[in-house]
Amino acid sequence: MPSMPMIRSLRLSLSVLVLALLVAVGLAACSGEPPDDHPGQPVTKRRAIFKQFAKTLEPMGLVARAREPYKREKFLAQAEELARLAPEPWPYFTPDANYPPSRAKPEVWSQAAEFTKAREQYVAATQTLLAAAKGDDLDAMRRAVNAVQDQCTSCHKQFRRK
């Protein structure tokens, strides 16, 4: 027969396990974002590419604002990566890909010509940035980084929910 201290220990362990399980379930319920369980996961794929945009552009923005030192090879590699990524998310904006967790507004599809123009302007801005990064004019690079960021902001204002 188990001793009283052993029974108390088992009860305590069981209580801790139940509490941990309740916390885990509660946190999962509070995430507020449904999973992307649609075929091909277009929302997940385009969001991952947009995160790469931000990860690539952010250090360039720091250089453009003189918060980080300019290192030509690093800056050029980032500009090349951004230009490579620029056309990638757009095929994932299919008519059936506006479901949670998407933050795309319906205008992406109802104003398709304007959305196409916005994405073309973004891609062009990344090409301008790449050309500037291949040169030696730091002011041109700063302007090009700002132009890319302005394209992001403009498109988000028109086509993305907050």
From TrEMBL:
Sample GO molecular function, one term: heme binding
- GO CC: one term? periplasmic space
Q: Which PROSITE patterns has this protein been placed in?
A: CYTCII
Taxonomic superkingdom:
Bacteria
Q: How is it modified after translation?
A: Binds 1 heme group per subunit.
Keyword Metal-binding in record: yes
State whether keyword Zinc-finger applies: no
User: Which residues make up the binding site for heme c?
Assistant: 152, 155-156
Q: Name any Gene Ontology BP term.
A: electron transport chain
The alphabetized UniProt keywords are: Electron transport, Heme, Iron, Metal-binding, Transport
Instruction: Indicate what this protein is called per its UniProt record.
Output: Cytochrome c556
Q: List the source organism.
A: Tibeticola sediminis
